[in-house]
Each structure stands twice: as C-alpha cells, then as structure tokens.
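Notebook entry, structure prediction.
Reason for the run: the old model in the group folder had no record of what sequence produced it. Starting over properly, with the input documented here first.
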Amino acid sequence: MSVSAGKDIAFSNPNNVGRYSHSDWAERGFCKTCGSNLFFRMKASDHYFIMAGALDETQKLWLEEQQFIDDKPSYYAF
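New structure, fully documented this time:
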C-alpha cells in the first residue's frame, strides 16, 4: 500500500536512500541499510508514492483507490 505524496517530499537521511530505475517511466526507492521498499516515483511528473509501512504516523490515512483489483490475491479483502 502506498500514499500519494506529490513532489514536495524530503527524507530525513537521504544518504541512506537508494534508487533503482526499473523503466523509462518510473523508479523505486529503497533503504540502503535494510533493503526495505520506500517509494515509487513517476519520472515524468516527479510524483512520489510512499509505502505506507515506511511512515511513522498512519492513523489519519484512508483507503481511497484500489489498482489492479481484478488481479488481487483471493485473501485480500479491502
């Protein structure tokens, strides 16, 4: 699950953030220490989607959109 974060984001320790450009249109960010997935960034718009598990405060988040719902595993029930 991810949170749409727009363009204006800052990492508390950017030196620990790695980036992997997996296509012409997007890249993924990860923690260089533990390998955790941190974000997905659309290159053309510079729009970030932060993984919900990477955030400290998630109480005010809500599910707004489901993508690829027709391909979801049967055990997912959002």
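Summary: The longest strand covers residues 26-31.
The old model has been moved to the deprecated folder.
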